[in-house]
Design goal:
Length: 313
C-alpha cells in the first residue's frame, strides 16, 4: 500500500498518463476564496445569462470540502480533444472542435472509473468522487492551482506545451497527496483573443460575458438569438473556437488519439446547403451520441436559420 503523499502523487501522474490524460496535477482540497469573490461579481453582473445553474450551490462550488466532505485533495486532469484534421469550413457551417465526436462526459467518466479501480488495487480503499463538467466544481481554477496551466485572457486554461484544446476532469478524494503549485501567466502583452472576438465578449482579462458569447448563444440560450448577434456569428452553428484558434499557444496543439472523438463521415461531408435543409432524422442520426444534442434539433435549426438567413446570403 502506498500512503506517502509524494509517492501517491507520482503514482497518480504515471497512472493518469497510461489512461490517456495529457497531464495531472494536485491541489489541497478547500475553499477558493478569491475565485469565489470573482464568481460573485460575475453573477452580479449577469454575465452568466441563462446559465442559472452557475448561481446554484455557491458554497459547494467554491469549497470542495463542502462538495465532498472529508476530501483532502483535488486531482485535476486534462484530456486532449484537438482533432488531427479540423472539419473543412470553406463551404460549411462551423461546429466547435470539442463537439466533433461522441459526448466527452461519459467517455471520460468511464476512463476515470477504470483508473480509480486500478488505483484502489494499489493504494487500498479510498473515497472519491469524479467530475467531468458535471457538478459545481471550479474546474479551471483547480487546474490552475495544480499548475497544469494558467487561465488566459480568453478565460480558458492554457498549457505551455499544447495550448488549450482540453477537457477538464477532477477526482476529489480523501487521499492526502502532495500538492503541486500554480505556474505563472504567460499571456504577457498579447490581446489576440480579445481583438478577434466578433462580439466583444471578452470584457476584461479572464472574464467572458457569457451573454455576449457565441458559444453561449448557440448552446445554452433557450430563446431566439438576440439581434445584437446579427452579422457577427462568423458561421458558427454550435459553439465558437475563435478565441482559442487565434491563441499563439495553440500552435503547439497536438492531435488527440481518442477514436471516439473523431467526427462521423456524414458530419464531415455535409455542406452549407445541406445544413439549411437539416431534418430531425438527419440530426438524430449524426448527433445521437454527440454533445450537440444538448441544443436539440430545434436549437441547432434556430442557429442555422439565424446565420444562413442574414450572415451569408
Ligand atoms: S467563444 Fe467566440 S464569442 Fe465567445 S469569447 Fe471566445 S471568441 Fe468571443
Ligand atoms: S490569445 Fe493571447 S491573450 Fe488570449 S489567451 Fe492566448 S496568449 Fe492569452
Amino acid at each position: 500500500m502506498i500512503h506517502n503523499p509524494h509517492n501517491l502523487s507520482q503514482l497518480l501522474k504515471s497512472t493518469a498518463k497510461r489512461y490517456g490524460f495529457k497531464s495531472c496535477g494536485i491541489s489541497k482540497s478547500g475553499a477558493l476564496d478569491k475565485d469565489a469573490r470573482q464568481l460573485e461579481e460575475y453573477l452580479k453582473k449577469d454575465f452568466h445569462g441563462q446559465m442559472h445553474y452557475m448561481a446554484n450551490h455557491f458554497e459547494k462550488r467554491t469549497d470542495t470540502t463542502k462538495l465532498v466532505e472529508g476530501s483532502r485533495s483535488v486531482i485535476s486532469l486534462l484530456y486532449n480533444y484537438y482533432p488531427a484534421s479540423p472539419i473543412d469550413t470553406l463551404d460549411n457551417l462551423k461546429i466547435s472542435k470539442y463537439a466533433y465526436g461522441q459526448d466527452y462526459h461519459e467517455i471520460i467518466k468511464g476512463i476515470l472509473r477504470e483508473m480509480v479501480e486500478e488505483l484502489t488495487g494499489v493504494v487500498g480503499d479510498f473515497s472519491c468522487r469524479i467530475f467531468v463538467d458535471s457538478a459545481p466544481v471550479l474546474e479551471r481554477a483547480w487546474a490552475r492551482e495544480s499548475g497544469l496551466g494558467w487561465v488566459g485572457k480568453n478565460a480558458n486554461l492554457i498549457t505551455r506545451d499544447q495550448g488549450s484544446f482540453f477537457f477538464l476532469a477532477e477526482i476529489i478524494t480523501d487521499l492526502e497527496i502532495a500538492p503541486d503549485g500554480p505556474i505563472k501567466d504567460y499571456c504577457g502583452t498579447c490581446r489576440r483573443c480579445i481583438e478577434a472576438c466578433p462580439t466583444q465578449a471578452i470584457v476584461e482579462d479572464k472574464v467572458v460575458d457569457g451573454s455576449k458569447c457565441i458559444s453561449y448563444a448557440t448552446i445554452e440560450l433557450k430563446d431566439e438569438l438576440p439581434e445584437s448577434f446579427r452579422g457577427k456569428m462568423e458561421e458558427w452553428m454550435f459553439g465558437c473556437d475563435i478565441c482559442q484558434d487565434v491563441c499563439p499557444w495553440n500552435r503547439f496543439s497536438k492531435p488527440h488519439s481518442q477514436v471516439l472523438f473523431e467526427p462521423s463521415k456524414k458530419l464531415t461531408m455535409l455542406k452549407k446547403e445541406d445544413w439549411k435543409e437539416l431534418t430531425q432524422e438527419v440530426f438524430s442520426e449524426i448527433f445521437r451520441k454527440s454533445p450537440v444534442k444538448r441544443t436539440k434539433f430545434a436549437g441547432l435549426k434556430r442557429n442555422i436559420e439565424f446565420i444562413t438567413k442574414n450572415d451569408i446570403l
